Amino acid sequence: MTDETTPAASPPGPQSPAKPESPPRSEPVGPGGILPAEHWAQQELVVADDGESALGESVVSSTASITSSVLNYRMLHGRRYHSEIGHASYWGSNDEAQSESLDLNHLAMTLACGQKLYLAPLEEDKVHRALDIGTGTGIWAIDFADEFPKTEVIGTDISPIQPTWVPPLLKFEIEDCTLNWTFAPDSFDYIHMRWLLGSITDWTALFAEAYKACSPGGWVESLEPSCQFQSDHTGIPDDSALGQWGKFFIEGGKKIGQSFTVLEDNIQRKAMEAAGFVDIQEFQFKVPIGPWPKDPQLNELGVLGQAVLESDIEGYILFIANTIGWSRPEIQVYIAHLRREVRFGNHYPYYRAKVVWGRKPDGA
Ligand SMILES: C[S@@+](CC[C@H](N)C(=O)[O-])C[C@H]1O[C@@H](n2cnc3c(N)ncnc32)[C@H](O)[C@@H]1O
């Protein structure tokens, strides 16, 4: 897919009658450039009651009918999250709405990579075992196992949200990738990691574990997005809801000690080099949000990009905005503004993403 993100001659018409620009503001800007919640409450917008689950003010433990500690989820404002076990906590929701969004995101990422599940130069008869770290709903691992029916595939996650009906040589395991990996050294010919931003404290340690588990001559591949929206055409105003989005994650990431600027800081390549991988290559792409690009493939990607975001905006931002002190009603008002800006389509937004892959040297 080309990198060209030219908008269609006329951008999609507004679905909201009001203009999205914000009036001049006088509120103080908080840490990381985050506008106070009152800013969004003061903007003209009718927020629909979407009938979602009851509001709550704090994180409470959901312990009903639970037999295993990995099923001991936390509830935050009516949304389900992975419970903190050992090192692992995760900022995204792990309920149905988020799973649907992750599945749509898989379609978007695959399309962006030219309908390929991987970019490393894999040879089918040499990939005997493959590993997908932080597999989420397992959708990538399922597709990979279908494409490589003779390969034994393992998908790991801290949340057991994967289906049970899967290709015969695929299995899912609960494993915290921030701890020492439990896999035998040199045991995987391909290791895949996607969208782990905000989940990893020490990326160098993560790739060191991947290096150990990778067989000599095998490949590791990492796809990570930026959490910030950009525009080549209008710029994204700092005080727009789109402009504020990334600031929530960067600031919230500081609170939970996990970086959301993996792409910006070139962490994938640096950590792979530090681990000892060679022949490192990368592919960068843009994911438009909305059907504004002229190029038909990018247009399709933009439709998907918008669907991913809109299918569960709350599941992405609720936890992280909560860590910096926002209540659910405040977050809901912000989300309404974001949705309106995305649908209005006048900023031609996109986010960047980067795939990096490298090989463990033969004889290592
Ligand atoms: C944004 S989702 C991406 C899922 C999948 N890789 C994909 O691209 O569809 C991130 C996943 O990483 C998992 N995760 C977070 N921290 C983890 C950890 N320490 N060990 C293993 N998985 C983790 C989360 O539970 C979540 O399923």
Protein described:
- The protein is an alpha/beta fold and 364 residues long.
- It has helices spanning 37-42, 96-112, 139-147, 203-213, 241-256, 267-275, 296-311, 313-323, 328-344; strands spanning 59-61, 74-76, 79-81, 129-133, 152-157, 170-174, 188-194, 214-225, 278-288, 350-359.
- The protein has a seven-stranded mixed beta sheet. Strands 1-2-3 form a three-stranded antiparallel beta sheet, with helices on one face.
- α5 (241-256) packs across α8.
- The structure holds S-adenosylmethionine.
- The site of S-adenosylmethionine has 22 residues, from α2, α3 and β5.
Task: Offer a quick outline of the entry.
The chain has 364 residues and is of the alpha/beta class.
Total domain modules: 1
Q: Structural class, from secondary structure content?
A: alpha/beta
Number of helices: 9
Binned strand content: 15-25%
Named once each, the bound ligands are: S-adenosylmethionine
- Strand line-up across the major sheet: 6-5-4-7-8-10-9
Low-pLDDT regions: 9-24, 46-67
Stated plainly, the CATH topology is called Rossmann fold
Specify the CATH architecture: 3-Layer(aba) Sandwich
CATH homologous superfamily (4th level) name: Vaccinia Virus protein VP39
Total strands: 10
Q: Report the top-level CATH class.
A: Alpha Beta
**Mean pLDDT, all residues:** 85
Helix content: 25-40%
Radius of gyration, Cα only, in angstroms? Answer: 21 Å
Q: Characterize the overall form.
A: globular
Question: Span between N and C termini?
Answer: 35 Å
GO biological process, one term: methylation
Pfam families: Methyltransf_23
GO molecular function: methyltransferase activity
Family: Belongs to the methyltransferase superfamily. LaeA methyltransferase family.
